Recover the amino acids of this structure.
C-alpha cells in the first residue's frame, strides 16, 4: 500500500501577496485606522477591496478575530475575547462571502456601531479574508512509494484600529546595547509605549567614529502595543574596520496630535577582528 503524507499549512501575513499557479490575491488597504472623534454619530464606516488575478476564480469568506501585539511586534489573534477593546461585537460587514472573477475587485464595507460603549483609547480586530477551497501541491520526494502533498489555504489579515475619546501615544527608548554573537555584531533594542494607543515607529541607525558618520542603515519599522514593550535583536552592517565606534539610533513616530516625535539613543562598541 502506498503511504501518503499530508502536510497542511495556513499562509498568513498582514501584507500578503501570493504569486503562483494557484492565485494572485491582494487587498487594499492593508491597514485601517479610524478615529471616533471624527464621527458625527455613534457609528463609523470604512471599506477595503479584495482582488484576484485575471485568470482566477476564487471564493472567499470573511471573519474577524481579536488580536494583541506581542513584545516582538507580531500579531497574536484569537477568535473570542472578553477584553473591552475588542471591536468584533461592534462590527458589521457586507458581504461576508463572495467570488472573485476576471480580476474584478470586490469592495467590502464595514460599519462599527455603538461607539460610545468603547473604552477611551485604542480598540482593534483583524479581518481575515480566507479562500473557501483548499489547494494541493504535489511535492517532490526521494522515497519510493511515498507521496507528499502540501495542502494550502490562503488567508490574508487586515488589522483594523479604532481610537476613541482621550487618546495618548507615548514612545520611550529604554535601552540600546551592542554585543558580539558568534562573531557577528548585533544590537539589542528595548522600547516601550505609554498611554492607551499603539506607537508605530520607523527610523535609522548610524555608525559614528571620531565624530564622523561612517555608515547609515534603515531600521525595521514596528508597532509597540499600548502600555507595552518591544524588543528586537538585529545585525549591524559588516565590513567595519577595527576600532572604537558609536551606534546612534534615531526613531520617529506620530503622537495622538499627529506631531512627529523622535526617540534617540547612543551606545559605544568596539570592533576587533582578532578576537
Amino acid at each position: 500500500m502506498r503511504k501518503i503524507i499530508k502536510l497542511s499549512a495556513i499562509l498568513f501575513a498582514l501584507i500578503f501577496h501570493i504569486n503562483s499557479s494557484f492565485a494572485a490575491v491582494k487587498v487594499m488597504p492593508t491597514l485601517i485606522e479610524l478615529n471616533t472623534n471624527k464621527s458625527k454619530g455613534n457609528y463609523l464606516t470604512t471599506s477595503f477591496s479584495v482582488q484576484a488575478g485575471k485568470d482566477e476564480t476564487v471564493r472567499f469568506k470573511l471573519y474577524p478575530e481579536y488580536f494583541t501585539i506581542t513584545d516582538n511586534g507580531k500579531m497574536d489573534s484569537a477568535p473570542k475575547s472578553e477584553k473591552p477593546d475588542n471591536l468584533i461585537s461592534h462590527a458589521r460587514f457586507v458581504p461576508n462571502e463572495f467570488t472573485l472573477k476576471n480580476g474584478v475587485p470586490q469592495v467590502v464595507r464595514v460599519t462599527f456601531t455603538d461607539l460610545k460603549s468603547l473604552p477611551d483609547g485604542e480598540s482593534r480586530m483583524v479581518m481575515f479574508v480566507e479562500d473557501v477551497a483548499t489547494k494541493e501541491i504535489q511535492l517532490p520526494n526521494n522515497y519510493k512509494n511515498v507521496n507528499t502533498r502540501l495542502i494550502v489555504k490562503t488567508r490574508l489579515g487586515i488589522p483594523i484600529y479604532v481610537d476613541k475619546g482621550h487618546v495618548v501615544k507615548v514612545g520611550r527608548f529604554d535601552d540600546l546595547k551592542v554585543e558580539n554573537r558568534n562573531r557577528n555584531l548585533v544590537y539589542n533594542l528595548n522600547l516601550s509605549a505609554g498611554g492607551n494607543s499603539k506607537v508605530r515607529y520607523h527610523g535609522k541607525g548610524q555608525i559614528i567614529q571620531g565624530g564622523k558618520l561612517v555608515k547609515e542603515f534603515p531600521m525595521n519599522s514596528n508597532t509597540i502595543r499600548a502600555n507595552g514593550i518591544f524588543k528586537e535583536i538585529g545585525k549591524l552592517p559588516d565590513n567595519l574596520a577595527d576600532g572604537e565606534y558609536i551606534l546612534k539610533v534615531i526613531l520617529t513616530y506620530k503622537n495622538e496630535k499627529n506631531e512627529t516625535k523622535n526617540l534617540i539613543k547612543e551606545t559605544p562598541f568596539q570592533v576587533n577582528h582578532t578576537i
Remarks:
- The radius of gyration is 23 Å.
- The chain is about 0% helix and 65% strand.
- Residues 180 and 257 are 40 Å apart (CA to CA).
